[in-house]
Amino acid sequence: MEAFENLSRGFHRKQEPFCGELRAPTGQKENPNKQRGFNQKMTDYIVRRFLLMIPIMLMVGIICFLLIHFIPGNPAELMLGAEADSAVIAALTKKMGYDQPLYMQFLKWLQMVIRFDFGVSIYSHQPVISLIAHRAEASILIACGATILFSFFGILVGIISAIKRNSWLDQVSMTLSLTLASAPSFWIGLNLMLIFAATLRWLPGSGYPGVIETGNISNLRYLILPCLTIAIPSTGLIARLTRSFFIDILSMEYITTARAKGLKESVVLIKHALRNALIPVVAVIGSYFAEIVSLSVVIETVFNVPGVGRLVVESILQRDYPTLQALLMFIAGLYVIVNFLCDIIYAVLDPRIQYD
Amino acid sequence: MRRFLKLAKKRPITIAALVVLAVMLFLTVLGPFATPYDPYKMQAKSRLQPPDMEHWFGTDNFGRDMLSRIVVGTRLTLGTSFCILILIASFGIAIGSISGYYRPAGAILMRIVDAAMAFPSMLIALFLASIMNPGFITVLVAVTVVYTPRLARLVHGITLTIATNTYVSAAKAVGVGEFRILTRYVILNALSPIIVQCSFQLAQIILILAILDFLGVGFTPDLPSWGNMIATARVYITRAPWLLIFPGVAISLAVISINIVGDTLRDALDPHGQEQIF
Lengths: 356, 278
Hints:
The complex is a heterodimer.
Chain A: H1 2-10, H2 27-30, H3 32-70, H4 75-80, H5 86-96, H6 102-114, H7 128-163, H8 168-182, H9 185-199, H10 211-214, H11 224-250, H12 253-260, H13 265-287, H14 289-302, H15 308-317, H16 321-349
Helix pairs in contact in A: 3-16, 7-8, 7-11, 7-13, 8-11, 9-11, 9-14, 11-13, 13-16, 14-15, 15-16
Chain B: H1 2-10, H2 12-30, H3 66-101, H4 103-117, H5 121-131, H6 136-163, H7 166-174, H8 178-215, H9 226-235, H10 241-269
């Protein structure tokens, strides 16, 4: 939810509405050079935005590396617990290189990260990278499924509420979405589990035997409840967001102009309002990634799904810091890439954006 | 404040939310004296009893009365949330106003804030809570560290605009001390958006406290916090669904009421402010 505090602020900059009908219809044909200039600028923007990812990732890398050094005391001692033998601690310190100077440790770590080698988990003794790859399937499926669900229903409910503003339908759906967005996500998950798994016995309530591993596509039903649990509070948020963007757009002058021209209400709503209102919503859905990561950490624990979120909790609770470092790198890296793609999509959708 | 009451009168849902919050505040202060049974008394005979006239919300796996536990849990959950909110507000306002008022300090402080906000807040809280010994202080520190940067960022932005006002320059010209300018001129004028933001933060704090409890890094399991109760209920989900439902309803009611009051506060204090989602 907190992602929205910043996002909704950002997207409320005053913008002139973009509407194909109001632009000179011959503009593009008359001046093909202008169009080429636009593409050139776009490519520049994408390249610049891409290069900007490098310092960000370096910064993220430094933070992830320093993470275990923030904690007072010897990292090896922390990982093994207070009652560990001092010889074992010394051995692990030596093995992980914690006795070397910090910059040497960092250079070594950087070298490994560039080769996508994140070391070995101190708990399961498997290479961290294969551990993550093994767990990624469930998380990716849940995230994609939930995103499709909450985008569709959230936008639908938001638009209906905005059009029927202040009617009973609007009030009911907005109160409902506030309620859903305010309930603790894991509690919603447990309730769904109680209703659909324990009482009705329609769906399995916990675990997930991987589809790739077992080759049984019907195992996807294990992921329905986790998907719903993430989608339900998110639908409430997206609905409220869409509604407020849509209402903003509907109060703009060019909508009045379009209505005054005698256009049909459906044309005004779909062609003029919807296109503009959806641009920020699409961008927000893209940036919703951080929220989905937070949610799936909890939800995968509730439903015992062997996903990346569950791995995060496990590695934190087991003090498996090499795994945690890699996971944070992985999540932050994905976050940076998703943000990059969002900016590009936003720029393509909204030609008024400033590229500088 | 008068505007808030006027607006609240027009919205029945805000009044309902205020009533809920008033009851919860009452229970926070007087909760331990208002319980029908001893919330800690274990009775092996009456384990996992469904709700009836004697125990309205049923009993838990140790035969303890759920209603009493939820009432006592109000103080633990809401009291801790208030403590955290006060900490966040004081740190956030201090960091934000100083970094907004003194530009060079701001450049450094805001970069730290940016770095802290780059990771999902859940993960940071989870990590911090796991490296310290479980307990009240740990929860306090973990949640404060996570949410302070968000408030500091907001205060920073507001201070930047306020500091450009002529009355600040005028105060400087008259020779008012720096500290006095910061507290009397800058922070006082920034107060209404800060109050609005704090109300939404409080809702967030309650939710993240529950999540930390649920994942087992929050309060120690013997304490009757609402999150701990849900974590226990998970084990008995088929045998005793009432253990799950009532604490969850308590959390949801608190969060919804705070969000609704926050909504009204925002509309009253900041009528020109753009519509935020939460």
